[in-house]
Design brief:
Length: about 160
């Protein structure tokens, strides 16, 4: 696997709870995005990690269980947890990105910022969104306002 590639997964084993909690709840980069985080929490609720027998899951307020996309650095599913994005389908046509967090070294002011992990997580969600019938938009709550990204319709290959 070439340098700069991440492995993406929607599943993280329960044994990685401490690593996930550290990244999501005790990340020193949170202060930079405090207003965005507070806005997302005010709008949707506080994220909570739920441990099941198979994996770690997230719930967020009244939305209940939401989806997570993990960015792992190192080319394997056991690689370092570099980032996570929480999202939910809030209407038939819209997916809302509730939270994005990356390890400090992958942040815009970190030594691995050139890896562009946050943008790569969003691009992975665009790919996933194209595969979900009816989804046309991804809404991102960061940056002081909601930003909508249109998802191009999935191109069917000729038979």
């Amino acid at each position: 696997m070439p340098m700069g590639e991440f492995v993406y997964s929607s599943v993280l084993p329960g044994a990685r709870y401490d690593e996930l909690a550290e990244l999501v709840f005790f990340n020193r980069q949170q202060e930079r995005f405090r207003a965005d985080i507070v806005g997302a929490i005010d709008g949707y609720g506080t994220p909570e990690i739920v441990v099941t027998k198979d994996a770690l899951r997230f719930t967020v307020g009244d939305l209940g269980e939401v989806q997570a996309l993990y960015g792992l650095d190192g080319g394997t599913a056991r690689a370092r947890l570099a980032g996570v994005m929480l999202y939910a389908r809030t209407s038939p046509e819209k997916i809302v990105v509730l939270h994005i967090v990356v390890a400090p070294e992958y942040a815009s002011n970190g030594p691995r910022s050139d890896r562009l992990l946050a943008l790569k997580l969003i691009e992975q969600l665009r790919k996933l969104g194209r595969a979900i019938k009816g989804v046309t938009t991804i809404e991102i709550l960061y940056g002081g306002r909601a930003t909508e990204i249109e998802i191009a319709p999935h191109q069917r290959q000729p038979s």
